[in-house]
């Protein structure tokens, strides 16, 4: 999808399209072992190898809305993403995000931050990831620096 195609979409279509694209990218990245999940784990990856990070997802739900420590971490992660030209979005359904990126055997408690990284052998091309980058680029032009995306339900 080109930037022009993204621009002519209605806002509701764009939101639905980006939600599906995000889910697709997360599933693909999980299959390629290119996900880092958890605030502290993500901070480690960003500190050690920021060039390997391709995309960042921050998840917030009502339970943690007033968690000051988490908000400080989010602010630092957002700043790091801006400084390193990493696309970043927010989702409001942490439980759904945990379902997508988690393993059935383990229950994810900290899915507040998810990084999509490039595999060691090089950058993987994904049309859905490119669509998300275009969405973030357009959002930044509209001064929406951390756009919110709704993940599709099961």
What is shown here, in short?
The protein is α/β, with parallel strands linked by helices.
Any key phrases for this structure?
6 helices
- Overall SS class: alpha/beta
Number of helices, where a helix is a run of at least 4 consecutive DSSP H or I residues: 6
pLDDT below 50 for ≥5 consecutive residues: which ranges?
none
- What does the main sheet amount to? 5 strands, mixed
Instruction: Quote the beta fraction.
Output: 5-15%
* Helix content percent band: 40-55%
Q: What is the terminal separation in angstroms?
A: 25 Å
Mean pLDDT over the full residue set: 85
Oligomer: single chain
Overall 3D form: globular
List the topology elements.
Layout: H1 3-8, H2 11-31, E1 35-37, H3 39-48, E2 53-59, H4 68-83, E3 87-91, H5 94-101, E4 113-117, H6 127-141, E5 148-149
Parallel strand pairs: 2-3, 3-5
Antiparallel strand pairs: 1-4, 2-4
Helix pairs in contact: 2-6
Kindly describe this structure.
- This protein is α/β, with parallel strands linked by helices.
- Helices cover 49% and strands 14% of the residues.
- It is built from 6 helices and 5 strands.
- The longest helix is centred in the N-terminal third of the chain and has 21 residues.
- The mean pLDDT is 85.
């Amino acid at each position: 999808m080109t930037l022009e195609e993204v621009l002519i979409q209605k806002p509701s279509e764009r939101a639905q399209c980006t939600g599906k694209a995000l889910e697709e990218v997360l599933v693909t990245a999980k299959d390629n072992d290119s996900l880092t999940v958890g605030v502290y784990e993500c901070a480690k990856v960003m500190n050690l190898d920021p060039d390997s990070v391709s995309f960042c997802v921050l998840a917030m739900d009502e339970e943690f809305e007033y968690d000051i420590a988490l908000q400080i971490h989010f602010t630092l992660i957002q700043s790091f993403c801006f400084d390193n030209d990493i696309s970043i979005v927010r989702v409001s359904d942490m439980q759904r995000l945990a379902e997508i990126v988690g393993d059935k055997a383990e229950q994810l408690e900290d899915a507040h931050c998810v990084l999509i990284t490039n595999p060691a052998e090089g950058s993987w091309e994904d049309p859905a990831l490119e669509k998300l980058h275009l969405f973030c680029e357009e959002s930044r032009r509209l001064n929406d620096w951390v756009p919110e995306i709704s993940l599709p339900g099961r």
